[in-house]
Hints:
- The protein has four helices and eleven strands.
- By secondary structure, the protein is of the alpha+beta class.
Amino acid sequence: MTADTPLPDYQNPPVVEVVFAVAIRSLPLSVVDLVKFGLEHLSPDFTGQREQPSIRMPVESFGPAGELDLEPSLQLLSGPPPTRLWFQSNDNQRLVQLQRDWLACNWRDSSPGAEYPRYGSIEGFFLETWESFERFAEKNGAKGTPVAQQCELTYINHITPGPTWHGHGQVDKVLRLAGQAGPFLPEPEDAQLAFRYRIAHEGRDVGRLIVQAVPAWRRTDQSPLVQLSLTARGTPPTGGRNGLAAFFRLAHQWIVRGFEAVTTDQAQTQLWGKIP
Length: 276
C-alpha cells in the first residue's frame, strides 16, 4: 500500500466530531485580544461565546527515557489562570477554541440529519482560521506570527446498534481489536480498549496514532454505543501553513486507514456502507 492508494470511503461514516488542534508558542495576547479576534475576524455566524478551563496538549517524544509525556505539569501562576475561549456557530456545528498557546477548530454532528462534510471542508475551515489568527497576532503586538509546535487531529465515532451488533458485550462484532476469551468466560459485559501506534514518515517517527474505544449510551434512547476515537498527534515539518497542512493530511491518512484496520469487514459493509 502506497501514499497514492485511494483511501477507503463510506456512505454513512459514524463520525460525530472532528477536531483540528495546534499547540503554539505562547503569545503575549490578553483575553481581551482573544475576544476581539473572535468578534472581528470570525464569520458573523459565530455568535456564541463561552469560557472554558485551559487545555494542554500532550507532547509526543521518542527518547530512550520513555515515550510518555513526563514533563512536570506544575505551573506557578503570577496572575489569573489561562482561559480557553469558545466561539460557536449558530448551527452549533462549528467551533473555534482559542487560548494564548492553543488553537482548535471543531466540526460536530449537533443537529438531526447533519451530514459529515468530509475532510477537505473541515481542513479549509481550520486553515482559514489559522491564517486569520496569524494576521491578527502580527497586528496586535504578538511580536511575530504564531509558531506551531505540535498538531493533533481527532476523529470521534459513535458506533450505534445495528444488524451487526446489539450491545456492549458484542464489541468484537465491530472492532477487530476485541477478541473473545476462552470457553470458560461468558460474553463480556462491556470493554474498553486503548492502543498507541508510531506514525513513521520518510524513515523517521513523526507522531503517534492513539486509538481508544469505550462503552457509552445514546442520549436520545439510552441504547448502547461504542465511542471510537482516533487521534493522530505529532510535530509538523514546519510551523507555517504548508507544514500544518502536510502533517494534518498525513494524520488524516493514518486515521482513515487506522479506522479500516481496527473495525470489522462486516461492520464496514453493513453499518457504514463501505464503497468498494
